Amino acid sequence: MNDQYTNAVSDAEELARVQGRLRSVLWRTPEGLGLLRKSEWVAVPAESSLHLSETDRLRLRQAFEEAGFECVYAVALEDLDNVAALLRVAVSLSGLADFNHKCAHFNYALCPPDVSSLVICSATGDFLAFVGTPEFVETAVGQPVIRAFEAFEGFARDAAWTVEQKRYFLSLLETLHKTYPSLNDGQFVLLLS
Q: Which tens digit of pLDDT belongs to each residue from 90-139?
């Protein structure tokens, strides 16, 4: 890693390999993001304030470290000019803070090289989604999965949101809490962006 804790990946083979692995579980459609169902995964939404808060970064560092990763990839989920499509990010508070500083205004997914988990950072949808084994997700969100869903429901029903915003967040909650776990392996849900 360099002094900024994130490195743009310019090697075409590495870029294609990582994007291909991610696309096997998460891909863009004209309507949003497709997320593949894997029986060992849960997917939990969380509120986002320009991606990762300090608490989010602490928990993500712990979750990725416990899974044995020293670095993860940040993969752009949109076509961007003058912004890296792929970054290598140190699994450290500084690395995650540097990623957040550089990419908070864009849609990215953080994932380890084997894509055994992922964190969807949606700037346009104003949410995070933690996806992986229950152990990874609970460490990343800092609470049991059911409590994380309850917290997001409280966020989604906040009186400050417009009717349209509430509908959007409650739809995301329904998709990840009810629809996603009901699918068979290989099926997918659509996350509206």
A: 999 999 999 999 998 999 999 999 999 999 998 888 899 999 999 999 99
Look up residue 177 and give its amino acid.
Answer: H
Total domains, the chain: 1
Q: Domain containing 50: what range?
A: 6-182
Instruction: Report pTM.
Output: 0.94
In a domain, 191, yes or no: no
The answer to whether residue 91 is domain-embedded is yes
DSSP strand pairing (6-8 vs 188-192): unpaired
Could you tell me which residues come within 8 angstroms of residue 91 by beta carbon, excluding any fewer than 6 positions away?
Answer: 60, 61, 64, 65, 69, 70, 71, 72
What single DSSP character describes residue 187? -
Give CA–CA dist 60/159, Å, rounded: 29
Q: How far apart are CA 79 and CA 8, in angstroms?
A: 15
Q: How far is CA 175 from CA 47, 66, 142, 181, 185, in A?
A: 15, 28, 21, 9, 16
CA distance 57 to 49: 12
The answer as to whether 96 is a domain residue is yes
Q: Is residue 134 part of a domain?
A: yes
Cβ atoms < 10 Å from Cβ of 158: 11
